TrEMBL record:
This is YihY/virulence factor BrkB family protein. The keyword Membrane applies. Signal peptide: none annotated. Keywords: Cell membrane, Membrane, Transmembrane, Transmembrane helix. It comes from the Bacteria. It is a multi-pass membrane protein. The keyword Flavoprotein does not apply. InterPro entries: Virul_fac_BrkB (IPR017039).
Length: 274
């Protein structure tokens, strides 16, 4: 069957292109950039209409419980110092560490499409920085939309005297925006990062898989950690960090797998029309 052949080829490519090792590398860069990025976002609270709980609430939807406790305690400790250079430090550290992560994604996608990286170092690094800034902007918009969406829903509810079921439906639609934003971010990543010209239709399957896969893997892993996994018993005080790294590892694996899916489909299409 065609589906079985596709799955077999996907696993073969993941093994050949060392997807598991690349995922571990990405997880390391994700961990390095997480706290500077949160510092950057939370120090912006005074300038945008969002609260600290709004920022952490987005992460809380997907992050495992033990990791969330670690994130909240460390962020609270850092922000309590009230240092004036936190914002500038957060921007610089976020751009640097996150762009390193984007560079790792670029290498993974180039392997998937079997292309060499012949772009100049400054072009690759500049692209990584631009993608990082774009992702930061999109994430900020993603944080603002639920806030404004809640206010809009309450305004409509009170103005027209609608039932409480309307608010439930509105909240479902409002949080469904998260899926659209994630899909947009992954689509941009898949079309810009690899050193190959791709059309929008070429990257849609991988972007859809990465979006659904990441959200599903995050929720399932969070459920597992909350109900079955006891990392603290094995790793002690490092349990929260280990859980966080495993979550980042699964996230990176979903992103890389999406790139491999795009590469397989592109290869099959070329054979069909050649």
């Amino acid at each position: 069957m065609k589906i079985l052949r596709f799955v077999k080829q996907l696993f073969q490519r993941l093994d050949r292109n060392e997807a598991l090792g690349m995922s571990a590398e990405l997880a390391y860069f994700f961990l390095l950039s997480l706290f500077p990025f949160l510092i950057f976002l939370l120090t912006l609270i005074a300038y945008v209409p969002i609260t600290q709980d709004d920022v952490l609430g987005v992460i809380r939807q997907y992050a495992p419980g033990e990791s969330m406790k670690l994130i909240e305690s460390n962020v609270a400790r850092i922000l309590s110092e009230q240092r004036g250079d936190l914002l500038s430090f957060g921007i610089i550290a976020t751009i640097w560490f996150a762009s390193n992560g984007i560079n790792a994604i670029v290498r993974a996608f180039n392997r998937a499409f079997d292309v060499n990286e012949n772009r100049h170092f400054f072009i690759v690094r500049g692209t990584a920085i631009l993608l990082t800034l774009a992702m930061v902007f999109v994430i900020i918009v993603a944080l603002l939309l639920p806030v404004f969406g809640r206010e809009i829903g309450l305004f409509i509810f009170s103005s027209y005297g609608l039932s409480e079921e309307f608010l439930t439906i509105w909240n479902t639609i409002r949080w469904g925006v998260s899926f659209i934003i994630l899909f947009f971010v992954f689509s941009c990543l898949y079309i810009v990062a690899p050193n190959i010209h791709l059309k929008v239709r070429d990257i849609l399957p991988g972007a859809f898989f990465a979006t659904v896969g990441w959200m599903s893997a995050s929720l399932l892993f969070s459920y597992y950690v909350s109900n079955f996994g006891n990392y603290t018993a094995m790793y002690g005080s490092l349990g929260g960090i280990i859980v966080l790294l495993v979550w980042f590892y699964l996230s990176a694996l979903m992103i890389i797998t999406g790139g491999e899916i795009n590469a397989i489909i592109l290869q099959w299409n070329k054979r069909r029309y050649s």
